Each structure stands twice: as C-alpha cells, then as structure tokens.
Amino acid sequence: MVRAASALLLVLLLAGWEVYCRVAGVSALVVPLPSAVLRTLWDGLAGGYLLPHLWVTTAEMAMGLAAGCTVGFLAGVLLAEVPVLRRLFYPYILASQVVPKLALGPLFIVWFGFGMTSTVVITALICFFPLLENTMTGLQQVDPNKRELFRMLRATRLQTLLRLKIPSGLPVILAGLRVAVVLALVGAVVGEFIGGRQGLGASIIAAQGMMDSTMMFALFIVITVLGMIVYQAAAGLERWLLRRPWKG
Amino acid sequence: MSFVSIEQAGYGVPSGGTILDRIDWTIGEGEFHALVGRSGCGKTTLLKLVAGLLAPSTGTVRIQGEPVRGPGAQVGFVFQAPTLLEWRTVLDNLLLPVSLTRRPQPADRRKAEELLDLVGLSGLEGRYPSQLSGGQQSRVALARALVTEPPLLLLDEPFAALDAITREELQNDLLKLCARHRTTVLFVTHDIAEAVYLADRVAVMEGGQLRHALPVPLARPRGRDVRYSPRFNALCLELRHAMDGAGSGVALERAS
C-alpha cells in the first residue's frame, strides 16, 4: 500500500515536472524533459553507448572496494590487537583521512596516469577508513566476561580473535562495509571526474562539455540505480552472514 | 588430603587498596564449599585467585599441591552471566571447551548430549542462546563448565539473576551433576539459603577477610523437605548471625 503510494508519488512528480517544463518553456539545457531523459537513457542502453562506461565504473568500484576493505579490515585487526601499533599509527591514519582524498586526485594522475588506476586508488582510500574504524571498534567491544571465559578455557590469541572477537564484532564490521559500498560509488564517479577517460563520471564531464543536460540526467539515473543495487547487495550479504540470531 | 589450599593469599590493587587480606582456607576433595558475603567483600576476587585468572600479591593458592599459575584444565568456571556465544548453537557452546583444544569427537558429542539431558534440555542442542529462557541459558553455562569433567568447579553467583523457582531447580541440577564425579566445588553467593542448601561448609567474608566458618551437617541428597525443615532454617539463622557478627567485627576494628 505504502509502496504503491511511493511509486505513485514518483509518477506524479515526473508528470508535474514534464508539464511545468513544457508549459513554462524551460530550456533543455537547464532542466531537460523527463520524457527526453528516459528516451536518451533507453537509447544509451539499447544502443550500447552507456554499457562500456557502466562496466568501467562498476569494475573500478569493485576493485577499489575490494582493495580498500581488505586492507582496512586487516589494518583494523592489527591495530585492535596490538595497542602499541594503535598508539603509533592511529594519529597518522586519522590525519590521512582528514585530507580530502579527492583533493589528492590530481597527484594520483601524476603518479598513476589518467584512467582506471588512479580512480581505483581513490576509491580504495575512501573505502579503507570505514572498515578500519569499524573493525577496530567491533573487535574492542567484546564482552569482558566472554574474554575471561576464553582465558579460562586457555584459548590462544588467534583462537580468541577468530572465534570470539571477529564473530562478536561482525555486525559492527558489516555496518562499516555498508558505508564503504556507498562511498565506493562516490569515489569511483568523482575519481573519474578528475582523471577518468571512461566511465559514468567521465561521461558526465563529457556531456557537460557538450552541454547535453539530458544525457547528464540519464547518467544520474544509471548511477543511482547502480548505487541502489550494490547497497542492496551489501545489505543482503549482511543479512545472510547475520542470519543466525546474533544478539542475546 | 586437601584438594584446594589457600595459604595467606592476599590481593591488592596498585593504587594501594587491599581487596583480600591473608586468606587461609582449605577444601577437601569432593567437598562443596560456599563463600558468602555482601557485594564488594572480595569473594569474586578470591574465586578468581583460585581460578588462576588473577595472581595473588601475597601467599599462594594450591590445587592438588601445585601452586596455581594461571587458568588450568582441571578447573571449570561458571560466570555470573551465562556468557554464551550468541552466534553458536547450544551444542557448539557446550563443546567450546573441547573444540578449543581439539576437534570434538562423536564421544564428546554424546557426552554433551548426555549433559543436556541431565539438565533437562535434550532436544534443544540446535537452538541459539537467544532462543532460550534465562534458566535454560544458565543450564547450558553449567553444562559447558562440566563437559570436560574438571575435578574442581568454581561458580560466581551463577543463579543470582533467576527467579526463585528456577533457582531451586538449578541448585538441584548442580548438586546432581557434582555428585556424579564427586566434583570439588567452591560456590560464591550472597544468598544465605542457597549457601546452606548447597554446601558442606560455608565461609563468611567481610571486608576482604574470612570471618567465620560454618559447617552444614545436613544429610545428602538434599531435597525439598530439607529446604523447609526447622533444622535448615536454624542453620540459615546461624549463618545470618555469623554475617551480622562479621559486620560488627569490622565496626569494632574501625572503632579501636
């Protein structure tokens, strides 16, 4: 019922937009007609123009996400387990995160050249922090009684990590992954703004150069749908991993 | 032959506070001792010294003549909270002490199922802890501590959070389980009736010292009729007076 109302709201908004633009004669350069946007989108998908760009952005996002999350998780485990390293490195890691990664984009172009590599690096850097932060928090939040239980059972440090700390911190770690997935898309698209030859972000810049606002809107739709799909995938993964009743 | 001997054991914190002050106590093999006292009197700390979770700052704790240097395989421990792993089934939780040392064998599985049966949880081995009631969770925790058949069992107010009826059932389960292998037990509680019902001997703690020891000459096995007998009530009253006396003892010491 609410879903239907939600869909109806979209239709009403689009209809209002279409009617207003036609009646008021708004220039397509400023705000394009929804019907024109949908036609461009359809042509782009059916004609195959958008598909390589979609593929490039998805690949960059996936690689950046995988690299950033893997390194972030491992670094989080290391810093949570070794307090000395935590005190030593954490200020630097924090400082590196306060620097806006996108501002480093031009430098990455110097280092890695135009194209996928610099975008993947930016995406990975953006995904790294939420995983690091949440892994550290998750591993340190273990119930002290359970720690004492593992001590009493003479569990090794590795056993305590693998069988107590990681499972009990998993909900927090996965929440970090969900944040990272959204950031990965932003990282990939905006990374392409700066240094991409191909991809959805590079296409937005190209469309802007040709003053093709209709195409820009079509690309927004593609990016939004892509973001919703990966977010749902991450949420689905989370539900599957936490399918057992986690909290007591 | 004493199974556990606590010799002049003391425990202090770096800030200078004394939590335990030169405790002497022995527990004979197969005996069931209870340790009672108000909150903060140091009874949990003493239990952790025996468990090897804390090291005494003075004196020693010996189990079977050997000084305790850390948590050992011969000790089972039951915490105040059930402390079950929520993401593991009841059976996996029960087998945790085994699976941390080696891969559980079918024989371990059978033993775990037998224990579940003894505490009235047969058929629930596939459940997760959050699907159990508080009493059932405490039963799993109790069974987990006994799955490796340790000769010494330490319990830290394990039934404090349960309702009176469930607590009585669990007390009976505990007596039954400990009688099977003549397990030596040290049970910490603040409940006078619980201490008298369970123990052969009750130690009263106050302000980090052992103030009084009370033998409980009630016949075993103990059942509901014991719990409501005049003899039982008289012993509870005696223990209560001992605890009051321990309190006034501190008051006198402070006054002098």
Helices and strands of chain B, in order, run as EEEHEEEHHHHEHEHEEHH
Runs of chain A with pLDDT <50, length 5+? none
What is the helix content of chain A?
over 70%
Largest β-sheet summary of chain B: 6 strands, mixed
Shape of chain B: globular
- Tell me the distance between the termini of chain B: 39 Å
The mean pLDDT of chain B is 90
Low-confidence stretches of chain B: 249-256
Radius of gyration of chain A: 23 Å
Overall pLDDT confidence of chain A:
91
Structural class of chain B: alpha/beta
The helical percent of chain B reads 25-40%
Number of helices of chain A: 10
Distance between the termini of chain A: 34 Å
Chain oligomer state: heterodimer
Order of helices and strands of chain A: HHHHHHHHHH
Q: CATH class of the domain at 1-69 and 196-246 in chain B, please? A: Alpha Beta
Biggest interface between protein chains, with counts per chain? A-B, 22 and 24 residues
**CATH H-level superfamily title of the domain at 1-69 and 196-246 in chain B:** P-loop containing nucleotide triphosphate hydrolases
Q: Can you summarize the main beta sheet of chain A?
A: none
**Any idea of the CATH topology of the largest domain in chain A?**
MetI-like fold
Show the helix and strand layout.
The complex is a heterodimer of chains A (248) and B (256).
Chain A: H1 2-24, H2 34-46, H3 50-81, H4 83-98, H5 105-112, H6 116-140, H7 144-152, H8 157-195, H9 200-209, H10 213-241
Helix pairs in contact in A: 2-10, 3-4, 3-6, 3-8, 3-9, 5-6, 6-8, 8-9, 8-10, 9-10
Chain B: E1 2-12, E2 18-28, E3 32-36, H1 43-51, E4 58-63, E5 66-67, E6 75-78, H2 90-94, H3 96-99, H4 106-118, H5 134-146, E7 152-156, H6 164-180, E8 184-189, H7 192-198, E9 201-206, E10 209-215, H8 224-227, H9 230-255
Parallel strand pairs in B: 3-8, 3-9, 6-7, 7-8
Antiparallel strand pairs in B: 1-2, 1-4, 4-5, 9-10
Helix pairs in contact in B: 5-6, 7-9
